């Protein structure tokens, strides 16, 4: 109920101020379980990704969104609950398996599951290598996978920017369902999982028009931080 209240309040405001657009909404089934596999460009994706769909989109988000204290923690919990986020532990190992089971339970209940295969927001607007959890979900659940591409949200609200820029129209494109039935029963094969994941990422690249980078976004972020520190240290030494 809270999801629909938030959408009813925010939806008209977002349409009026930002004039978002959508393509391919008819590709998303009106009932039954489905996986929306999307690129992740910006915090703004949480606002605009599901705006044009008549169905609730449930996404998996890091548990830290729900464990904060004080007013900030309360607002964070309210926001992410309102946009359909379910908290998961993303520390890896057994936690990753628990996250997978949570996703499968959502799909078994007939819902729409939104997932970002990159695992984190793009640090520079490019599309990064997908993690294979999305492939395991697709093969174990045997439900359709819809590529879900956000457009212009990085330019509108890049990482570190607290408020979106006006004058940039965010968009979302929903691709045709991807059929992985030829791989059913092979969800324990690492090569199959990588092939399925790469096919999803290629479809996203085509829809979004992004440049693809064959490395994980989390690794790219670490490299950027390291490079910035080295540049700062070099500057200090020259001074």
TrEMBL record:
A GO BP entry: phosphatidic acid biosynthetic process
Q: Which Pfam families match?
A: Acyltransferase (PF01553)
Q: Could you tell me one molecular function GO term of this UniProt entry?
A: 1-acylglycerol-3-phosphate O-acyltransferase activity
Q: Which residues cross the membrane?
A: none
Signal sequence bounds: none
The protein's matches in InterPro entries, at most eight in alphabetical order, are given as: Plipid/glycerol_acylTrfase
Q: State any GO CC term.
A: plasma membrane
* Keywords assigned by UniProt, alphabetized: Acyltransferase, Transferase
Q: Taxonomically, which superkingdom?
A: Bacteria
Q: Where is the Phospholipid/glycerol acyltransferase domain?
A: 34-153
Q: Which PANTHER family match?
A: 1-ACYL-SN-GLYCEROL-3-PHOSPHATE ACYLTRANSFERASE (PTHR10434:SF11)
Specify the protein name: 1-acyl-sn-glycerol-3-phosphate acyltransferase
